[in-house]
Design goal:
The protein is α+β, with helices and mostly antiparallel strands and 231 residues long. The protein is built from five helices and eleven strands; from the N terminus they run ααββββββββαβαβαβ. Strand 9, helix 4 (156-175) and strand 10 (183-187) form a beta-alpha-beta unit. The longest helix has 20 residues, at 156-175.
Length: 231
């Protein structure tokens, strides 16, 4: 009789205390439901979406054919939601999930920019930051002299100038955390007509005046051409 009572009591307690799996499910009451669109409103499928709480990654998912994604998260926290795709810019947003004891859906909207093969960039754009998140994105960079190099001997100063500019942007990229395998640099001997401002040297040559010293060998954005490629 005593044994029967003990079994009955244990059964009653089991019905009152949920299993660890059930308890965990009861705590998960919020759902991040989001979409990823381009700046022109196109749906982005196949994007990788990572969700972080602080520095800890708590979830990972992908967008479907409609550019949508969803993920279950605990309430009462702010999450950082990141989005990567080989053909689009990296993006991240914050999702604030309030404290709640009921099921709650929190909308998340992410907008990305298209990145196409052969797209031109300047040093003023955040393309280098994008490369840190997109290892398939590489850059073909061409640096130019102030004026065309017709003779290595007569135009030795221009040869040195274009080499110095190549070294300057190489140092700049490496210091920015961009790996050497993610870019190539070509030193041009010519200057595309009308692409760059008329240099002091060319102006002086045209007027017969004495040539001035070459321009700075540092980062000269107007003398650097950057084009994207996808590996």
């Amino acid at each position: 009789m005593l044994a029967v009572l003990i079994i009955a009591a244990a059964s009653a307690i089991a019905t009152l205390v949920p299993s660890s799996a059930e308890a965990q499910f009861q705590k998960v009451v919020c759902m991040l439901k989001g979409d990823v669109l381009t700046t022109s409103g196109e749906k982005v499928s196949g994007a990788t979406v990572l969700i972080y709480h602080g520095s800890e990654r708590v979830a990972s998912t992908h967008t479907n054919s409609d550019g949508k994604f969803s993920s279950v998260v605990p309430p009462g926290a702010t999450y950082r939601v990141t989005c990567t795709h080989p053909a689009y810019s990296y993006a991240e947003v914050d999702a604030i999930v309030p404290e709640t004891d009921k099921y709650l859906e929190v909308p998340v909207h992410i907008t990305v920019k298209s990145m196409t093969e052969g797209q031109a960039f300047s040093l003023n754009t955040p393309v280098f930051e994008q490369m840190k998140h997109n290892p398939k994105l590489t850059l073909a960079i061409t640096v130019y002299p102030d004026h065309a190099i017709r003779s290595a001997k007569k135009d030795a100063a221009q040869v040195q100038l274009v080499a110095a500019r190549a070294n300057a942007i190489t140092s700049y990229l490496l210091a920015s955390g961009i790996g050497a395998s993610q870019f190539t640099i070509t030193q041009s001997k010519t200057v595309p007509e009308g692409q760059f401002p008329r240099s002091n040297q060319d102006s002086a040559a045209a007027t017969g005046k004495k040539k001035k010293k070459s321009k700075s060998a540092g980062l000269m954005p107007q003398y650097i051409q950057i084009v994207s490629h996808f590996g």
